[in-house]
Amino acid sequence: MGKVKSALFLTLVTIMILGLTFMSAVSFDYGGYLGFRSFLVSTQKDALIGNDLTFDKDAEGEYVTTGTGSSYVGGGYSVVYYPDGVLSRDAYEDELEARRAALEAASEEDKEEAQKAVTEYEEGYAKKGSLYFKIGTYDEEDADKQGVATKGDTLTVDEKFEAAFQAAVSQIKTRVRELGYKNSRVDVRDDYSVEIFLPALKNASAQAAVFSSLGQVGEFDLRYGGENAEDAEGIVFAEGEDIHDYVKSAYYVSNGGSPSVAIRFTKAGREAVKAWTADASGSTYVYFYVGDSPIIPLRADQQIDQSTLYVSGSYTAPQAKAVALAINTALNGEATDLNFSVGEVYSQRAQFGSLALTLLYAACGILAVAILAFFFIRYHRLGFVFLYAFLILTLLMIVLIWGIPFLYLGIETFLAVLFGMVLLSVSNIAVFEAVRKEYAQGKTMGTCVKNGYKKCFWGIFDAHIVLALISFVTFFIALGELATFAFTLGIATVLSGLITLAVGRFHWACMMSFAKDKGKFCNFKREELEDE
Amino acid sequence: MNKLRSKKLFALLIAISSVIIVAGVILYALFGFNNAQDKPEAKCIDVSYGTTVVNGEAGKDGAFLEENVEKILKDSGLSYGKTRFENGALTSNDLNASGQQITVRYTFSAKTADEKLETAVTAIEAFVDAQAEVEGSPISDGVESVAWHALENLALKKAAWRGAIAITVGAVVALAYVAIRFGVSCGVAGLVVAVHDALFTAAFFALTRIPVFGFAPLLYASIAAFASVAVWTALCIKIRSTAKEQAGIAADALADGAIASSWKYVLFIAAALAAVVAVTGLVAAAGTRALVLPALVGCLVPVYSSLFVGPQVFVPIRKAFDKKRASKKGGYVRKKKKAELEAEE
Question: What is the pLDDT of residues A223-269, one digit of tens each?
Fold first, then answer.
């Protein structure tokens, strides 16, 4: 290739690399609350390594999380749920303090009443571990008078409450598992409260709705009425009937791009809803209850006559999934009549510590320097050919991880990218060494490069195809971290193959056109032949 | 015969592999992996306090409190892991961190006695109360609560069987390609090696009880299978080129030649992968290290299997195929001769 063409081509490639590097690594603000977030900053991060920078700015210039997808922004939230009749120490003490304050502030005539309220409260609860339990028998009939434990020599938790709690935990566990968010976990805390951790989603309000749905346990019920849900009427079951004779299941569906909850009715259920909404106006509602509150309040503008009802509303995908799971687990899971209230909420930037992401970048930097140093030492200026290949692979991987919706930065992603870099390095070494051998035999550099690539082509092609095959097949079947690792390695493999066999060779031709001593350029030497 | 392919050595290594894999499978069936990194059971003390929070870090007042809490815990003989949360609030349509309150969670072994934790909590509360009397104390009224909790994690297992199937199917498909390109013997031997490596790696973790994250053993097994396929393909490339150069070469000689000319590449690839894992693990944060460093096993097992196991499996299969081919060829030659004789008659 001629020098002018080479210079032009290399300039263009260099500009492209610099531009991509800038867009990948540099964030800046402009014009008040406007700002540009680099690919690395705005790439989704998992809960383990977190995100060292917040995602975007609002109108006041405050950093907030935004977006509508289900992808992760790094770190996550833990929410603690307490069943009715069980209080955290803080909640108990706050209420007691409030009653004591009311006692102190009470007038003489109200004092007796206020004192009674304090005494009743103190005697109404007993401490076990870090929790306070309402004393009394667990009463299914009257929700307002639920006691969950009896006080003797020791505190004994009511058996019925215990069973209801275990059933509720089972429902919650199924929901979190089926939601399938990476790094999510469910802990039973102090035996009778539940702590759920979910990775931070881009959309905070969607995440709030997900947490609300996860904690809404209890029995599923179908009711109808006006705007006031409390006045809604339920189905009058015939003998031997229950809700399963009316509703089959619920599931998440993306209905024409709009996330929806699909509810499948039985014939009787369809008829019931049809009858309820026969004279539907805007003030007719069908309520889908889970526990004590409606999880879907559906306003019917016209008669509903469908075997599968699609409720879209303004759901985001995570919300719709969580609502469908809540209905399905309440309908088909273990029965419980327990209600939960939200206690403590914790936010975590990164489960592996605030430096986790920075240290991973540092590790990548060290490895990159080591790999490049090897190439520059062994192949001198030919190292630039590899440098360009290496940068192109790295930058394209950054762009792809940023741009592909289901990819995120996690440790498995880092490992896959690094393995891709190793593959690129090994492939380039194979080619360079093949050319070195050719050059040693006294051939011209042009012939050597041509022969070297020719000799290595099928080997490199096969190795990449085999790795790409195993990666993509694994991705299509596996779930979670393994799927992410496999897919990332798959695209890194494809890019490594293309860059080694096509781009690298072209760069080599361009760069070498400026070298007077081509052997010196590559640190290749001729074999010294001894005269016999 | 190459030293690496001696029959005695092969028998010994196969025995070792079999024992490790069988023992690993039994231990996995009985106890699963040691998922201690997931902290399936733990106890913790949560200390919540108000402070100025900048990027998830507490201000100076928080540092003073944490320092003293940690001193109390150490004096009580408690060793702990530490996690810092920002306290938040959940409403029906919003979830956010307050930016003003921190909860520091000190996590202990599940075996820690409740009384010991109770005593530590009392000591921390006493310290906080005492600070309230100290004029100018940085935590005079900032501490919201101190409480200890017992945590029991509910495992959310779902992906394990799919992951195992994924790796197997992936290996079968990839090695079907190897079989088409390099011959069935290479494909079958490669499949044996890949499955061996994945099983060996998973069994290693079940057997050694190295604490891992729940999802990690499958990731390590897949790394082993992927590296194994890559390394074995490198050997197959050499086998094919030798077979092309020397037509009719014996299977033993092919395997020996492949080992002799490729072992350096195999070691180089494994060393490069291991270096990547080791550097990432050593530079990274503690949690990352716990996740990444065990992947070294997945990078190194393929060296052992591709040099010691793969060629030994390859040789008898190749011989069987050579024999079959020869007999087919013989049949063809006999038929051809018979036809010629008939034509002459």
Answer: 888 888 888 888 878 788 888 899 998 999 887 778 899 999 999 98
Task: Quote the distance between the C-alpha of residue A99 and its chain's center.
Answer: 43
For the CA atoms of A446, A447, A448, A451, the dihedral, rounded to the nearest 10 degrees, stands at 130
Residues of A in contact with B37 (CB under 8 A): none
Q: Which of A184, A185, A208 is facing B90, going by the closest CB pair?
A: A208
**Any idea which architecture B2-37+154-336 has in CATH?**
Up-down Bundle (1.20)
Contact across the interface for A184 and B286, Cβ inside 8 Å: no
CB contact under 8 A, B283 and A362: yes
Please tell me the total count of domains within chain A. Answer: 3
**Shortest alpha-carbon distance between residue B35 and chain A (Å):** 13
| Residue numbers of B between 230 and 249 with CB closer than 8 Å to A | 230, 233-234, 236-237
Give the range of the structural domain holding residue A247, as residue numbers without chain letter.
69-82+163-348
CA distances from A240 to A278, A330, B204 (A): 27, 19, 55
Task: Pick from A474, A489, A494 the residue to mutate for testing the B interface (most B CBs within 10 Å).
Answer: A474
Mean pLDDT (whole number) for A151-175: 87
Point out the residue among B103, B144, B219 whose CB comes nearest to the CB of A412. Answer: B219
* Chain B stretch 199-218, residues whose beta carbon is closer than 8 A to a beta carbon of chain A: 215, 218
Q: How far apart are CA A346 and CA B87, in angstroms?
A: 5
Residues A268 and A399 grouped into a single domain: no
Maximum Cα interatomic distance, chain B, rounded to a whole number of Å: 125
Which residues of chain A lie closer than 8 angstroms to B56, CB-CB? 349, 354
Q: pTM for this one? A: 0.84
Interface ipTM: 0.84
What is the rounded distance in angstroms from the CA atom of residue B158 to the CA atom of residue B172?
A: 23
Give B174 to chain A, closest Cα distance, Å: 5
Q: Tell me, what's the pLDDT at B320?
A: 86
Which of A185, A351, A418 shows the shortest C-beta gap to B287? A351
Min Cα distance A52 → chain B (Å) is 8
Segment holding A127, helix H or strand E: strand A125-128
Q: Is residue A60 part of a domain?
A: no
pLDDT confidence bin for A142, thresholds 50/70/90: low
What is Dmax (Cα atoms) for chain A?
A: 125
Q: Which two tokens stand for residue B19?
A: 């024992």
Contact between B276 and A356 using a beta-carbon 8 Å cutoff: no
Measure B140 CA to nearest chain A CA, in Å: 19
Buried/exposed B47-61: b ≥16 CB within 10 Å, e otherwise: bbbbbebeebebeeb
Q: Is residue A52 part of a domain?
A: no
The dihedral built from the CA positions of residue B286, B291, B292 and B295, taken in this order, carries a sign that is positive
Domain spanning B42-150: which superfamily?
Answer: ACT domain (3.30.70.260)
Q: Is B293 on the interface with A (CB under 8 A)?
A: no
* Same domain assignment for residues A78 and A90: no
- Residue written as tokens 């100025």? B52
Of A54, A339, A153, A86, nearest to B99 by C-alpha is A54
pLDDT (0 to 100) of residue B247: 77
Closest alpha carbon to B273 in A93, A415, A58 = A415
Examine the fold and report which residue of A147, A177, A192 is the final residue of a domain before the chain moves on.
A147
Whether B83 sits inside 8 A of A351 (CB atoms) is yes
* A456: in domain: yes
Over residues B80-98, the pLDDT tens digits come to: 988 888 888 887 777 777 6
